[in-house]
Amino acid sequence: MNEIICGDCLEILHDIPAGSVDLVFADPPYNIGKASWDKVDNYLEWCEAWITATAETLKPNGAFWISHSKPLVLAKLSEMVSDTGYGLVNWVTWDKYNGSGVEGTILDRTLQGGIRMYATFSEYLVWHANEGDWTAQCDRERGFIFEPLRAYLDGERKRAGLSRRAIDEEIGTSNVSQYWWQQRGWRPPMECHYNVLQRLAPGHFCREYEDLRREYEDLRYTFNNPGKVSSVWQFPPAKPNGHPTPKPEALLERVITSTSNAGDVVLDPFAGSGTTCVVAERLGRQWIGIERDPSYIEIAAARLREPQLELT
Known about the structure:
Elements: E1 3-6, H1 9-12, E2 21-26, H2 40-57, E3 58-68, H3 71-83, E4 87-95, E5 122-129, H4 136-141, H5 147-160, H6 164-171, H7 178-181, H8 191-200, H9 209-219, E6 232-234, H10 249-259, E7 265-268, H11 275-282, E8 286-291, H12 294-305
């Protein structure tokens, strides 16, 4: 924990305990045609392998982020993540220059008359999480994450001999309770309805409602709403640091603070110059980085030794 491991992520990921990671941020290499994957199909095959291995390390209520510069490729990667049981929550566009206040950048090229297309100064991110929706794939791979609560409610109902119709009649609304017993579309009862269940079945439904609510929140994926933030993010690019494509620390700050909590474990299978690890350390998270290039690990190690200044 709290180290950058030198090696191939496809080999190292299998050594990380299953279900031990709270947040994954993956910024895979983009250089299709320049590496061992000489075309998109080979690149996608490689991506499917690391996505499957990475998903195994993630907790059922964890967050899976991927960043990419090519939207059509990222759409395919997003489908791969969904197939592991973590559905798409958000597609984020990272606007690198507009609104950044940076002058004299490549944005000035948009003023050149010879350009016959809109200039692309953006990258993209997807955020996936298990929203609790039941599907055959999700049930087989990950299980229904709210099953402990569903099983408790339906088990107490059956032990008390209560029919669903009797419960709905007492509540006064037809079919309102159907979502408490089934997996598809499951949601917990409101406190007033839980009180009805306790009244109808003395000696059953003995757990306190606040206890149920806390467990429900623990099972759900984390989202610490930053407020007044849309799915278009405006951050200037990171300053050069010896890595060809470093991500800005402010971008990682938003990812980590909004979809993890203090003490959680953050994994970056392509750590590069260590931005994810640096920000996770600063924000009080545990972290694991994987990087195959020793020169980048040296850059990351130097950054981690620097005084931890506040993010701006």
